[in-house]
Hints:
Blueprint: H1 18-34, H2 40-77, H3 83-116, H4 186-207, H5 209-225, H6 251-254, H7 259-272, H8 277-293, H9 299-313, H10 318-330, H11 334-347, H12 352-364, H13 368-381, H14 385-397, H15 401-414, H16 418-434, H17 438-451, H18 456-468, H19 472-485, H20 489-502, H21 507-527, H22 533-543, H23 546-559, H24 563-575, H25 579-589, H26 597-609, H27 613-626, H28 634-644
Helix pairs in contact: 2-3, 2-23, 3-9, 3-11, 4-5, 4-21, 5-21, 7-8, 8-9, 8-10, 9-10, 10-11, 10-12, 11-12, 12-13, 12-14, 13-14, 14-15, 15-16, 16-17, 16-18, 17-18, 18-19, 19-20, 20-21, 21-22, 22-23, 22-24, 23-24, 24-25, 24-26, 25-26, 26-27, 27-28
Amino acid sequence: MAPREHDNKPTEGEPGETPVAAEREREWERVWAEGETDAEAGTGSEREADSQAAEVRSEAEADSGEAEASSEAKANSGQVKASSEVEADSDGDEASSEAGADSKVEADSEATTDSDAEADPEIEPEAEIEPEAEIEPEAGPTEAAAPSPGHDHHPHSHDHDHPHAHDHDHDHDHDHDDHAPHPGTPEDAVADERVAAVRRLGAAGRRWRVVQLAGCAALLAVAMTAGAIAIGAAKDSGATGVAAVSSAVSPDLLASGSLDASIAALQAHLRGQPKDFDGWATLGLAYVEQARTKGDPSRYPQAQAAFTRSLKISPENENALEGRAALAAARHEFAEALAYADKVLKENPYSERALCSRIDALVELGRYDEASKAADLADARKPGVPVFTRYAYVHELRGDVKTARTVLEQALAAATSPGDISYVAGTLGQLAWNQGDYKTALDYYGRALAADENYLPALEGRARAQAALGDRADAIKGLELVVSRYPLPQPLVELGELYESRGAAGDKAKADDQYALVDAWIALARANGVNADLDTALAAADHGDIKSALKAARAEWARRHTVHTADALAWALHVNGLDKEALPYARQATATGYHNASFIYHLGMIELATGHKADGRAHLAKALKLNPGFSPLGASKARKALEATK
């Protein structure tokens, strides 16, 4: 496969004119607030929609609870199915989950249709949405017309299970922070204040661990909603990374040079044309992107409100349904994302965003054969960078690194925009790092940063490669820069492990600081509707409450069977001393041929613990040969285990 070619204006003020910006903000708050005075009928319809959605969600949770209870029973009895049997069991769970997702999509559509007839022309967000003070720049945008949704040139915005060093959920996306604040700007000062707020909360969590678990979600949610915190994303992923220009956002929107300014322009446009359903859909997509690029899950409820308004005005409109798919994926509700993507494709088989969302959802549900077919179909219908990167990832998951590299190299050769170049080059850097080719990885990360010096996945990847080459000082310096602006789970864990491996005075306390911030971010994500069980399982298994890690891993496995959830469950079982139960999951995690040294290391350690000495030693040696610097702590433990079992 080879890539193929393929009005209103807001009130403006001079830069620094705070009164103008404040007046714009007050006007926007007024317009949002006026939605609360809509007719009783309209409000009732929306409540009915919420009620129907809640019923579907409750049924899905009940199904999930039964599946989780079943898994617990098997664990207690010690009867764990073999890999093939476990895979077979997943069919029933997935069917139930998809049925629930389909019902939710239909319920949402019917509700928006019913309420549209009596919808008030004014803006009516959901009750929990608050005005966005921080998204209004001091100087107004020059163009207020809402950019129309278009085809993106990057993977979507949800967190792919495509790990970096520690296999945290990864936005298999172009985690492209085109709009990161630059040092010395007012926006940078605000970001520093927000990050400081997160860190103060993390410090409190370390002093009162028990209190932190109960209260950090509420504190973070309030702080971020009020604009006190803006966490950025440098992901797999993001991973966490967070987490590339999303397929959910029109390139026209991002081309303005500032996502915040584009959102302000959309708000201004919608003040004058509140029945522009495309404008509402684009605003929702922009909020999803902003949540991802700033690591701020509090934007997701705002995105949901915008999509609801769009569908209320024009039921079944394609852009809003595509946005609902992107939002569901961002919240790790992959069965729901698949249902929305399929709904769009029934009406428009050539929708690029829906084609890409379908691949992503199938991958995240562990349905790799179907994902491969979906990638082939998308390539035939809508070839381009978003499809090429997904095509490559599907092949990488199956161990076909050669094809993945070839497709990505061709995509990079065809890329012209800074966003495309930085994303594809960064992905090639990650692919090289996974194979232990650190110098090549550094070359690609350098190319990504030449296109965009603030591209966080490349900054994070460069630090990871430096650490693997033994340049720990520069690696720590680089990750300190990343987490000072973007305190997200994966870079926080990576930095913590580098501190621990260095072992200097005070490093253990510094490492604990990073792990406490991971807990804070996870609490915030959950408070805003994000399923963070995989993040919890991965971080807590090595650096937190192992019981919580196991509970989270079991819950995630009940929802979806991927190589990443299998690995997370295997390792959580291992650290809890349940190695016999862990072994089938560890084997399933490596069964596709995916070249992931961390997975292979986990398998080797579990095999040693279950008395399979020869297999365990072979897998530990394989992990170190593939990627000798896969983890600052894990690689060291693998070497010690090999030495101890000679």
